[in-house]
């Protein structure tokens, strides 16, 4: 909660099913949010909840509505969903007994009968390209959000029209199974099999990268305010064409027809780029140096933000920013790119971190040294040599 708040995130969606421990976890989440000046809201996962009758859903909303950490919009209880097409929204309102601001994840293309006029907003979960059937894109079927916008663009006939969204939701904080997490990997959780491709694969760089963009969005501007130099990088641990067929196995027999399990390369591997992606956030013009497997790439970057795709080479990956002949910041990644299978598996997950101006400190307690650590610019992220990030405030450091 502290880390999210420091980056400008205002609230967490609490995706819930029908697990027996849900209420206990919800109570902890609401209490933590209240302590850290954050807000939370319920998001009903209709892989588990049922569309009717809706009384049980309404009762759950009402149960948490009066807590101080509940997100309220226009004096209404903010509620969301994953799926839930054809939900009786009027009956849901009645079952809560209080006004709700309902922003579900409906899928009109699936033939939902719920009128858009019955809801207050719509969440688009499909932020990345797919094949049109909620699966990874293929070489012949690749549909993006931009493709869905073309009908509106064409209808405008070239006229300028900008409609800023009232809310922006980041997908997701901790969905490790689908690999689109931006939160830290420290939380203890029951392994659902995702550890095979998530262990030692942080996405912290994406989280750090979000801060200036969040601030710009809130300010209603497209101009970023860069307060300190940063370099964010991410890449896959192996080339896309590495063959792991003889060693990659699933927990159950492969069933590629359903798309639930894969034996071999996953759908959508063909358009993947063999690149190291680098985003630099700069307070002034700099030279960016990327050493990918012994091949050095240098490019000049003006003040502000820029992104580059560097050819991926097997070996160690290192990065630096220099200005006026002096190295401003540098980092050598702990994850080399290899030309064999990672633990015998196909792993198309990304490894991503941020290189920042870290300030060295030594942690001691009762005369015992705990080694050299580094604080980032916001004093929230404490790194040890292994780049394990502990989110703290300066007053908490003594207790590590």
Index terms:
glucan endo-1,3-alpha-glucosidase activity; 3 domains; TIM Barrel; four-stranded antiparallel beta sheet; 17 strands; five-stranded mixed beta sheet; 400 residues; 26% strand; alpha+beta; 7 helices; Glyco_hydro_71
Topology:
Blueprint: H1 2-6, E1 11-16, H2 22-35, E2 39-45, H3 55-65, E3 72-73, E4 76-82, H4 89-96, E5 100-103, H5 145-156, H6 195-198, H7 204-219, E6 230-235, E7 275-282, E8 286-292, E9 295-301, E10 304-311, E11 317-323, E12 326-332, E13 351-356, E14 359-365, E15 368-375, E16 381-383, E17 389-391
Parallel strand pairs: 1-2, 2-4, 4-5
Antiparallel strand pairs: 3-4, 6-7, 6-13, 7-10, 8-9, 8-11, 11-12, 14-15, 15-16, 16-17
Question: What structural class do you assign from the helix and strand content?
Answer: alpha+beta
Named at the architecture level, the CATH assignment of the largest domain is Alpha-Beta Barrel
Classified in CATH, the superfamily of the largest domain is Glycosidases
Shape: globular
The main β sheet shows up as: 5 strands, mixed
Find the count of extended strands (DSSP E, 2+ residues): 17
| Beta-strand percentage range | 25-35%
Total number of helices: 7
Portion of residues within helices: 10-25%
Q: Whole-number average pLDDT?
A: 83
Distance between the termini: 18 Å
Radius of gyration: 23 Å
CATH class of the largest domain: Alpha Beta
Could you spell the SSE succession in H and E letters?
HEHEHEEHEHHHEEEEEEEEEEEE
């Amino acid at each position: 909660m502290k880390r999210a708040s420091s980056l400008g995130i205002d609230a967490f969606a609490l995706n819930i099913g029908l697990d027996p421990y849900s209420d206990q976890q919800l109570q902890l989440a609401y209490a933590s949010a209240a302590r850290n000046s954050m807000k939370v809201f319920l998001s009903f996962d209709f892989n588990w909840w049922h569309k009717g009758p809706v009384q049980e859903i309404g009762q759950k909303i009402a149960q948490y509505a009066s807590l101080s950490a509940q997100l309220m919009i226009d004096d209404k209880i903010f509620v969301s969903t994953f799926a839930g097409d054809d939900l009786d929204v009027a009956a849901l309102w009645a079952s809560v007994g209080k006004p709700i601001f309902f922003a579900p994840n409906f899928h009109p293309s699936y033939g939902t009968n719920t009128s858009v006029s019955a809801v207050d907003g719509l969440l688009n979960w499909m932020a990345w390209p797919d094949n049109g059937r909620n699966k990874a894109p293929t070489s012949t079927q690749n549909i993006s959000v931009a493709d869905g916008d073309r009908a509106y663009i064409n209808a405008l006939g070239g006229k300028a029209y900008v409609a800023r969204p009232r809310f922006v939701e980041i997908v997701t904080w901790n969905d490790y199974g689908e690999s689109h997490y931006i939160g830290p990997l420290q939380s203890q959780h029951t392994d659902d099999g995702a550890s095979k491709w998530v262990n030692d694969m942080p996405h912290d760089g994406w989280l750090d990268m979000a801060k200036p963009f969040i601030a710009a969005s809130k300010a209603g501007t497209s101009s970023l305010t860069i307060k300190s130099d940063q370099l964010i990088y991410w890449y896959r641990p192996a080339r896309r064409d590495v063959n792991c067929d003889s060693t990659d196995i699933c927990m159950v027999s492969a069933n590629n027809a359903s798309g639930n399990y894969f034996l071999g390369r996953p759908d959508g591997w063909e358009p993947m780029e063999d690149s190291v992606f680098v985003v630099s956030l700069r307070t002034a013009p700099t030279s960016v140096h990327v050493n990918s497997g012994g091949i050095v790439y240098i490019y000049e970057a003006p003040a502000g933000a820029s992104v580059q795709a560097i050819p991926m080479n097997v070996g160690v990956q290192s990065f630096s920013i220099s200005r006026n002949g002096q190295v401003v910041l540098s980092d050598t990644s702990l994850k080399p790119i290899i030309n064999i299978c990672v633990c015998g598996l196909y792993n198309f997950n990304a490894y991503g971190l941020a290189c920042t101006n870290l300030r060295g400190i030594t942690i001691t307690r009762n005369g015992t040294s705990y080694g050299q650590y580094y604080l980032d610019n916001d004093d929230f992220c404490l790194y040890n040599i292994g780049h394990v990030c502990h989110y703290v405030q300066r007053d908490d450091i003594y207790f590590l």
